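Hi both,

Apologies for the delay on this - the queue was longer than expected. I finally got the zinc ion-bound model through. Below you'll find the protein sequence and the ligand SMILES exactly as submitted, and right after that the structure tokens for the full complex including the ligand.
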Amino acid sequence: MKNYYELSRELAHLGSAYALVHWDFETQMPKGAAAWRAETMGFFAGLLHEKMVHPDYFTSAQTALKNAANELEKEALRCAIKDIEKKTLLPQKLVEEMSEASALAHEGWVTAKKEKNFSIFAPHLEKMIRLSREQASFYAQGKDPYDALLDDYSPGMTSAMIKKLFDELRPKLQELISRRKKPMDKKWSVPIEIQEKICHDVVAWMGFPADQLVQARSVHPFCTNLHPSDVRITTRYNVDDPLMSLMSTVHELGHGLYENQIPAEHVGTPLNQANGMDMHESQSRLWEVCLATSPEFFRWVHGWYDKNAPEYIKGWSAQDLFTLASVVKPSLIRTESDPVTYGMHVMIRFELELAIFNGTLSVQQLPDAWNKAYQNYLGVTPPDDSVGILQDSHWSSGAFGYFPSYLLGTMISCQLHASLKEKFPDLSSRVETGKLAEVCTWLKENVHRYGRGMPAPQIISQATGRPLSPDNFLQFLNERFIA
Ligand SMILES: [Zn+2]
């Protein structure tokens, strides 16, 4: 029988092939090939699943755990065993039921959103909640079902820990929002070819190894990787919003750098995997929000335009660009919100999910609860469900417990940023001049290199000298966006 490391390397090859086929599907594939491609992707996904749930794989992981050389390897192998158990503990019937129900729920969600009518989605949502609860009960091992679901996205966190953090955060965030400045009333437009050029040059600004990256366009920006040495990101462009493409490129590069700097040894094992959605989001938000939404980054941007496309920067100072990028404005849509109001969007979803899983809120009561929460926390009321409770697709796929990772990620990024500023007192001038190689190395040494070999809360404490708290996050928001 092959050992665990040989088997996981085979899985890594399959995963890599799947990622390439999927990348091509999103960026290059001719539209007419969609049916065949869906079959190909299903075939690869099936092969991966088959290998993952094979009894030999589980036995080999247990043997490897017995022989593990150090604590990093042991923790990674415990994660591997947990992953396999999660895949094998669920009865086949439930897996099939979930996959069928989520396909239908997705369709129901699309129609409901189009028709601005929650009641079309409600029966699907009820079913997804019931099935997710059932699913969680199989691997909750005595834990609360919602905590078991959370664990998929923010390993090591519980709803009680998150509730405590969010409760502390909420009034302070509301206070910051109440002190926001008037937004800038000026529009900036840049042709897409120019935007694409700066989105390519920002790779060198960051210090990302250009020979290990591919950039492309897609409808929804994303990052994927075939291996640490082969990272791919996409960007979406809009002539009238040159900041969107630039900031989202920096965001995806932050995700990509994490994948790029995880040690390639033991590829396919959790030592070579990112540590949860919250840690992943902390890396993208660190680059996008902490480093790039800054006056010094926009001095770099302004300098780039001066040199490469001066006609598009006429009448704009570097400070103007930063002012445009740092507008704070309560709004209805989470994905379009600024870093100050963003937290409220996440907390609303977390509160509602908790209430659903506690049994204190029914699906019928949800739209009303959603609208009330938006009025309470952000002072805005959705005119209809499509820009209210139907805006996110997460619940249609049964991704309950996912939302907190977005806010936790930003909190983690601000705490890491505070440590970076201590380590590099000249961080601002490094950002302005694009000399960030040592910052990348610091992230590699303190975060990336552990993969899943150390629980995320421990990585955070070790890298920053204290457990995760909202302090740095609030201080950062105040200094950067409000004061
Ligand atoms: Zn992200």
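Main takeaway for now: The first strand starts at residue 213 and ends at 217.

I'll put the files on the shared drive as well.

H.
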